[in-house]
Design goal:
The protein is mainly alpha-helical and 301 residues long. Helices cover 79% and strands 0% of the residues. It has a single domain, classed as Up-down Bundle (Na+/H+ antiporter like fold), CATH 1.20.1530.
Length: 301
C-alpha cells in the first residue's frame, strides 16, 4: 500500500480527545513561560530577534526547499512542513544547559516562538503547503477551508497558551506543580493516539520505515545546521551559537502530530513523519549536547 493511501480514522469522541490533548500540550508549554523569559531579550536583542526570525520563518522556508529537492511523498512532505511550523520545544532548554550553551537565549527563543505560534504555525502551514506543486492539490482534494483552519488553529493554540501564562504569572507555585503532570499526560496521550491511529496499518507502515527515516534525519540535520550557520554569520559567541543550533533542531513534534491527527487524519504519512521527528530530534539533540558538554565554550561578548 502506498504511504499516501494510508488512512487514519477517528470518531467524534476521539476528535474531542485530540482537541483536549492539544489544549494540554499548549497549556503545559505556557506554564513554563515567565515574564523574565522575554526580558532576557533586552540583554542581546540582535541575537534573540535574529534567532526568532530564523526559527519562526527561516526553518519553514528551508523545509520547503528540502521537500522540493528530496521529493518524498506528498503527505510526508506536508508532515515535514507541519513540524517546521511548530514552535521550539522546552526540551531544548535542558539540552542547551547540558551543552554549556546560553540558556537564557534558549529560553527566550522558546518563549517567543511559543507565543508567536498562535499565528505563525497555521500561517506557515497554509502558506508553504499551498505553494508546493504536490501538496497544494492534496489539500484541495481534502477540501480544507483555509480561513477556517487558520482561525480554528489559532484559537486552539492561543486559548490554552493564554491561560497557562496567566496561571504562571498569578500562581507560580501552582504552575510549577502542574508542569510535570501536564507533560506526562501529553506524552501518554500522544502514545495512545498514535498507536490507535497507526495500529491498523502497522504492516504497511513498517515496510515504509527505510523510506521514511532518511528524509526525517536529513531534515533535522539541516535544521541544526541552519541554527549553527545563522549564529556563525551573526558572530554569536560560542554559548549562544550552541543554544541557537539546538533551538532550531528541537521542534515540538508532539504538537505537530496532534495538528495532523486533528485536521488531516487521512494523511498517514504526515502523522508518521511528525512522530518520527519527535523521536529523532530528541536522540540527535541529546547526542549533540553530550558532545558539546565535553568541550569548553568561550563566553565572549
Amino acid at each position: 500500500m502506498p504511504l499516501d493511501a494510508v488512512r487514519l480514522s477517528f470518531d467524534e469522541n476521539a476528535q474531542l480527545g485530540l482537541q483536549a490533548l492539544l489544549f494540554v500540550i499548549m497549556f503545559g508549554v505556557a506554564l513554563a513561560l515567565r515574564v523574565d523569559d522575554f526580558r532576557n531579550v533586552a540583554r542581546h536583542p540582535w541575537r534573540a530577534l535574529l534567532g526568532a526570525a530564523v526559527q519562526v520563518f527561516g526553518l519553514s522556508a528551508l523545509t520547503f526547499v528540502v521537500v522540493s529537492v528530496l521529493a518524498p511523498t506528498p503527505s510526508m512532505a506536508f508532515g515535514m512542513l507541519v513540524v517546521a511550523a511548530c514552535p521550539g520545544g522546552n526540551f531544548s532548554n535542558f539540552l542547551s544547559q547540558w551543552a554549556r550553551g546560553d540558556v537564557a537565549l534558549s529560553v527566550s527563543l522558546t518563549a517567543i516562538s511559543s507565543l508567536l505560534a498562535t499565528v505563525t504555525t497555521p500561517l506557515n502551514i497554509v502558506f508553504w503547503g499551498s505553494r508546493h506543486p504536490e501538496i497544494a492539490p492534496l489539500l484541495h482534494a481534502l477540501g480544507i477551508d483555509t480561513r477556517a483552519f487558520l482561525l480554528q488553529t489559532a484559537l486552539m493554540l492561543g486559548v490554552p497558551l493564554a491561560l497557562g501564562m496567566l496561571v504562571a504569572a498569578r500562581w507560580p507555585a501552582l504552575a510549577a506543580r502542574l508542569q510535570a503532570p501536564c507533560h506526562r499526560l501529553a506524552l501518554g496521550g500522544l502514545v495512545v493516539f498514535l498507536a490507535a491511529a497507526l495500529g491498523g496499518n502497522w504492516r504497511e507502515l513498517r515496510a515504509w520505515g527505510p523510506v521514511l527515516m532518511p528524509p526525517v534525519i536529513a531534515h533535522n540535520a539541516l535544521a541544526f545546521a541552519l541554527g549553527w550557520l545563522t549564529a556563525t554569520l551573526g558572530r554569536f559567541p560560542e554559548p549562544a551559537r550552541r543554544a541557537l543550533t539546538i533551538e532550531l533542531g528541537i521542534q515540538n513534534g508532539g504538537l505537530g502530530l496532534v495538528i495532523v491527527l486533528t485536521h488531516f487524519p487521512t494523511l498517514g504519512g504526515a502523522a508518521l513523519v511528525a512522530a518520527a521527528w519527535g523521536f529523532w530530534n530528541v536522540m540527535a539533540g541529546s547526542l549533540l549536547a553530550w558532545r558539546w558538554s565535553r568541550l569548553p565554550a568561550t563566553p565572549g561578548q
